[in-house]
Every structure is written in C-alpha cells, then in structure tokens.
Amino acid sequence: MTVKIQTIKDIRLFLAGELKGIYSEHEISAMTIIIIKTLFRFSKLHALAFPESPVTKKQVSEVTRICTELKTGKPIQYIIGETGFYNCTFRVNSETLIPRPETEELVDLIIKENKDFRGSILDAGTGSGCIAIALAINLPEAVVSGFDISEGALEIAKENARLNKTKVIFFKADIFDTEFNKFSNTDILVSNPPYIRDSEKKYMDRNVLNFEPRNALFVPDSDPLKYYRALIEMAGKILVPDGKIYFEINEALGKEIANLLNVPGYSQINVLKDINGRDRIIKGVKNG
Known about the structure:
The chain is of the alpha/beta class. It folds into 2 domains: 8-71; 84-286, 3-Layer(aba) Sandwich (Rossmann fold). It is 40% helix and 20% strand. The chain is built from 11 helices and 11 strands. The protein has helices spanning 8-19, 25-40, 44-49, 57-70, 76-80, 101-113, 130-138, 151-163, 206-211, 226-238, 254-261; strands spanning 82-85, 88-91, 120-124, 143-148, 169-172, 186-191, 196-197, 218-219, 239-248, 266-273, 279-286. The strands form 3 sheets. It has a 7-stranded mixed beta sheet, sandwiched between helices. Strands 1-2 form a two-stranded antiparallel ribbon. A two-stranded parallel ribbon has the order 7-8. Helix 9 (206-211) links the parallel strand 7 and strand 8. Helix 1 runs antiparallel to helix 2 and helix 6 (101-113) packs parallel to helix 7 (130-138). It is elongated and about 70 Å long. The termini are far apart.
C-alpha cells in the first residue's frame, strides 16, 4: 500500500497498511498513537481531533524508520526508547524489561496499603527502576533504594530517576549475595523477579523472546522458585519486625511460593489476583 504522507491521517493509513497481517488492528492502533504522541508530542485527543495536521519530511522519515523496525517484531517501547508506567515516563532499552500493567497493580497495592509511609523500601532486581521510582513519587516521605546485578539496567534506572525528578538510591548487588547487612532495618521489600519457566517460552510472543533480556524473565523448570527463596532469605535478614514483603509472581506458582512463606516468622500471607483473575502478587508480614 502506497500512501503519500503529508498529515497525521496519512501516518495512520500508512502504518495500517504496512503492518497489516503482522499485528492486530488493536495493536496497530495503539502503536500508532504512541508514535504520534512521541514524534509530535500530541495528545491522543489532538491526533483524533486534528487528523489534517501537517507533518515534516523529517517526521515522515522517522515514521518509516520506526515502521521498518516494527516489522522485525522489535517492541515499540524499545524503538522509541521510552514507555509509560503509573503515570510516569520511563526510558527503556534491551538491558531492561518493558514494564507491564501487572507490575502497576503491584505498585498500586503498595501505595494504597501504606498511606503516609515514612520508612524504608528496597526494590530487589530493580531493572528500569519503575517500581522504586513510582513508589518514591507516590510515597514521598519514604526512603527508597533499588539494586540490580546489571550495570546497564542501573544506568537506565538512574536516568529514569532524574527524568522523573525523584530521589532513589540505586546500586549494584546480587540477589543471591549472602551479605545484606547494608540493607538492615528495611520496612518494605518489593520485587518482580524472573519467574517465567523455560517450558513456558513456547507461549511467549516473539517480540519478548527476541528482544527483552532473558535473564530478567526466565527460570529453569528444575528450580522455578530460586529467586523467591533468595528473597525470603534476604527478608529474614533485613526486614524490621512487622516489615512487609510484596512480590510479583507466576500465576501458576502462587501456592508453592506461599508455602515458602508459610514458616515461623511470617504471617498475613496472601496471594492476590490481578485484574485478569490470575494469581499475581504475594504479600506477607514478618512477625515481631
């Protein structure tokens, strides 16, 4: 399909024609809005209300470049280098996962359950920093820290803190490290660790498998709870009495992860469902 691109409307027609058969109509529409908002800094309402708004040759060149990359399956968020999460904008690249709506639910739960919170929060395996930064913005009296083993991810997390004008302490550490004295007296431990089993790869979209960092996604079928055991061991060392944990989980492993916490030392253990009715969050309290 050949479309001479001169207006916003032409961009929509061009992308619809070029991406047909590769993505669904809904996906194409959503990506088109993202592209228009990013290139023109227009709102979705403006793009719909003023379809005849003119575009420049440079903008047309950018649209065609983005379209070419989309045809490879590369996620739109990586192509434009940013994404939205909990009413904030975050830089993302191949070193970081693209934040998901389920993770927004995790953040939302923590904020709602900890109004006027003034303690310390540690985000284990912070990636892009989206959890830590969103919590720091919405719980401004909290002291928020986040760590990751990836230096590349930490660079993006620090950039995101600057971008969102909030203070979060980011540093490099390994979730399996046994020396966690520097995190002592933590009030809330939160994490969205790798939890997709290798056998579940066959259900994943190619844009996830081919472009997102695998070490932030997958765990071996032989030991799918490895990160949760490490997190719970960490929690035992660093959480204050009555300190809380909030973890995002694999929907198929809720009972198993709850069993890890169902030991002396923890109470109020709950597995919560996401908006789609899938087990997605586990929370608990360390006994005093």
